[in-house]
Amino acid sequence: MSLSGTGVDYVFLTDVDEFPLLRGGDGSLKALMKRLDWPDVLTMPETVFGTGDILEYRDSPITGQFLRSTSMKPGKWRSRRGFKSITRVDPRLVIRNHRPLARERVAGDLRWLDGSGKDFPLEFRHVHQKGTDARGMFDLVTLNHYTLRSLESFLVKHARGDAVAEGRVDKTYFRRRNQVVVNNSEMLANLPRLEEEIATLRQNTRLKELHLASVQAHQAKIAKLKSTPFYEELLSIAGLAPADG
User: Fold this and answer.
1) Is residue 245 part of a domain?
2) Domain count, the chain
3) For residue 83, which phi and psi values (nearest 5 degrees)?
4) Does 1 map to a domain?
5) 96 in a structural domain
6) Over the stretch 76-108, which tens digit does the pLDDT of each residue have?
7) Is residue 176 part of a domain?
8) Is residue 32 predicted with pLDDT exceeding 60?
9) Which of 115, 117, 119, 107 minimizes the C-alpha distance to 134?
10) What dihedral do alpha carbons 191, 44, 177, 15 form, nearest 10°?
11) What is the DSSP letter of 79?
């Protein structure tokens, strides 16, 4: 990806189910980058949130619904996490979707920090690696990843499939990502500001109409998929009872 000449200083590639959780300051990415004196790369480890006991789809911010996740203090055997990165537009760096790549001869010259503001491991800067041991990397920022959402919404995700690998979104995918090890409500502190922004967006009539249409389409798809055997299998895996009606 080339952005030279665009006037862009940094690029942050993330998915719609991923939300940075910042500790300290005003909770903004700009404030964090300034606090770290504008590094060349900031690579943040993910914190995966599971479905927990939430069965039904609800039209409200997912950061306020799902409050159980994997631990942010993993032990040795649960320490590997995925990453996403804020990357400076710099000829020394090749921008990738998880984290950039740097040529080995210049990798050590970069100010490349992890989610605790410490130097990101040099041995991973020039190789394609989506994740690594993330112990001690969560002090300043982590990326909350709501990969499953409600069990009903996962039905839709399963039916849609993965954009990269066919057949990847299956029962094994659900089991591995239904992480409910600890209670995790830190993101709730940002909810009032988020709801204010959503209220502002809803003042746009066209956006409001499009949102309602997407919600209705999602609900219709869920109603159709709940008649499939896969729904019963998911209920069993998650240890949930079907909703009334």
Assistant:
1) no
2) 1
3) -135, 160
4) no
5) yes
6) 887 889 999 999 999 999 998 888 999 889 999
7) yes
8) yes
9) 115
10) 70
11) -
